[in-house]
């Protein structure tokens, strides 16, 4: 995985959510966020930590932790979740409960 630099110009899709993710535990796995949004008017309310990667297959894989809700949103430039994305975030997913959305939502 190659880290991406913000801002990401591609249209992104929300594909899944890992629930009950603690910020400190996620930082231990992922390292420091590539970007932290502090403006609660630009988020779902509260801080968001973001990590973005380009996978070996060229697909973009982005993770957004909605800190107050303890939800880690799995996003991609593709509208279907792939095994590559699940593998990229498997250690994060293992921390909580994975919910794969029935269809993609614009991020």
Structural class: alpha+beta
Low-confidence stretches: none
Number of helical regions: 3
Terminus-to-terminus distance: 21 Å
Q: Shape from CA axes?
A: globular
Q: What's the helical proportion of residues?
A: 10-25%
Main sheet overview: 7 strands, antiparallel
Task: List key phrases describing it.
single chain, 107 residues, 7-stranded antiparallel beta sheet, 3 helices, 39% strand
List the helices and strands and how they pair.
Elements: E1 2-3, E2 13-19, H1 23-30, E3 35-37, E4 48-54, E5 60-66, E6 71-76, H2 83-88, H3 90-93, E7 97-106
Antiparallel strand pairs: 1-4, 2-6, 2-7, 3-4, 4-5, 5-6
Q: What does this entry look like structurally?
A:
The protein is of the alpha+beta class. Helices cover 17% and strands 39% of the residues. It has three helices and seven strands, in the order E-E-H-E-E-E-E-H-H-E. The protein has helices spanning 23-30, 83-88, 90-93, and strands at residues 2-3, 13-19, 35-37, 48-54, 60-66, 71-76, 97-106. A hairpin with a 5-residue loop joins strand 4 and strand 5 (60-66). It is globular. The mean pLDDT is 93.
